[in-house]
Amino acid sequence: MTIRIVVVDDHPIVRQGLKTLLEGHSGWQVVGEASDGAEAVEKAKDLTPDVMVLDVTMPRMNGLEACRLLRRQSPDLEILFVTQHDSPQMMREALEAGARGYVVKSNAARDLLAAVEAVSEHRVFTALNEQQSYRQVR
Amino acid sequence: MKLRILLADDHEIVRKGLRALLEKHEGWEVCGEASDGREAVEKALQLNPDVVIVDIGMPNLNGLDTTRQLLQHDPHFKVIVLTITDSDQVIREALDAGARGFVLKSDAARDLVSAVEALQNKRMFFTPRVNDLVLAGFLEKGQTVSRNEAPKLPTLTAREREITQLLAEGNSSKEVASLLNLSTKTVETHRSNIMRKLSFHSIRDLVVYAIKNNLIQIELPPPPKTPTGPTAA
How far is B40 from chain A (nearest CA, A)? Predict the structure, then answer.
C-alpha cells in the first residue's frame, strides 16, 4: 500500500533518520519535510499526505498546537507523534489534540514502522518506555 | 584508505540520520555505532576509528566523560562533541575534556561534514559561539570567561562523576555496581564520598547537580496551552 508521509522535526538530522527508516519500507514515500508546526500546517495543505510524523517540542509552533490546527484543517490526515517525552501525560495531551499515534524517539527505530502502519489504517498506536506492552486499538 | 568514523548517540534514529549524512561523503565510512558512552569507549578501543562523534546527553556515561575516558586511553583519538546547547559551561567542559570539534545538533546537517573534514586535515572545528568564547578567554588572559559563573563545588573524580550520573538517572547502588562491575559496598562508599564532598543530603540534590553540570540533559515539555477565549470576570 502506498502511504504518503510528511516528516516534521526541527532537527534536520532527525528528519534524515526518520526519512531513511520510512523510505526503507516498500511503497512508502516521504513527500515533504517541515521544521516547525507552522510549516507542517502549510505542508499538509499543499501536499495532502496520508500520515504526518510530528515532533512535540519545536520552535515557532509546537507539535500539539499544530496537531489541533491540522485536525480541523485536514480531517483525513493521520497524525503520529515521535517525541523525546516519555510521559503518559504528554501522550494523553497528544491524543486529546487529535493524534492517532505516539512513539518515544529513543524507540523510534523499533516502533515507527508498526506505528505508521497502524495509524494509516486508522488504528491507535501508543508505546511508552514505561509500558511493557503496546496498545493498538481498532 | 577510507576515513573511519564511530557514531555514539542514544537515539538510533539520530544515528541513522548521521550515518546517511556522513556516508554520502566519498571516502568516509561509519565503522561502528554505540548507544551510550560506555559502549562508545569499548567500540573505540576495539575499532580504532579515525574520528569519534559523541552526543553529550547519553545515558550511563555522558559524552563529556566519554571524551575524557577516550583521551585517557589514547590521546590520539579525535572527538567531535554533538550537543543540544552551546552554553558557556558546556563549551568550556567540552574544550577541557579535549574535544577537537563542537557541533550543535540542530546544525549537524550543515556543520558536521565540515567538522569531520577539519579533523581529517588535522584542524579543529568549533561553532562561531565557541570561537567567540575562546577569543574572549584569550583576551582576558585566562580569567574566567563567564561573569555569572556559579561558585565552584569540590571536584569529583572521573569515577565519582560516572556514579553520580548513574544515580541521578535513577539507578540504585546495586544497579550501579552491576553496571560498573564493582561491589555494592564500593559504590556505597563512593556515594557517601560524593554526598559528603558536595554537602548534599538527598538524591534530589544529586539530580539537580547532575542536570546543572551536564552529567544528564533533559528536554522540557512545551508550555501548557493558554486559553484563547475571554476570561470570566
Answer: 17
B151–chain A Cβ distance below 8 A for any pair: no
pTM, two decimals, is 0.79
Q: How far is CA B2 from CA B43, B51, B98, in A?
A: 18, 12, 24
Domain range B158-212, CATH architecture: Orthogonal Bundle (1.10)
What is the ipTM for the molecules in this complex? 0.81
CATH numeric code, A3-50+60-106+120-137:
3.40.50.2300
3-state secondary structure of B156: coil
User: How do the pLDDT tens digits run along chain A, 138 residues long?
Assistant: 789 999 999 999 999 999 999 999 998 999 999 999 999 999 999 999 999 999 998 988 999 999 999 999 999 999 999 998 888 899 999 999 999 999 999 888 889 999 999 999 999 999 887 543 445 544
Whole-number pLDDT of residue B126: 85
- Name every chain A residue with its beta carbon within 8 A of the beta carbon of B221: 56-57, 85, 87, 90
Using CA atoms, how far residue B100 sits from A91, B40, B158, B182, in Å, is 39, 17, 20, 32
Helix B158-168 vs helix B173-180: angle between axes, to the nearest 10 degrees?
130
Per-domain residue ranges of chain A: 3-50+60-106+120-137
The 3-state DSSP class for residue B104 equals strand
Q: What is the pLDDT of residues B72-91, one digit of tens each?
A: 999 999 999 998 877 777 88
Instruction: For residue B137, give every residue at least 6 positions away whose Cβ sits within 8 Å of its Cβ, in sequence order, or none.
Output: B143, B145
Task: Give the type of residue at B4.
Answer: R
What cell numbers appear for A104 in the block? 518515544
B23 interfacial to chain A (CB closer than 8 Å): no
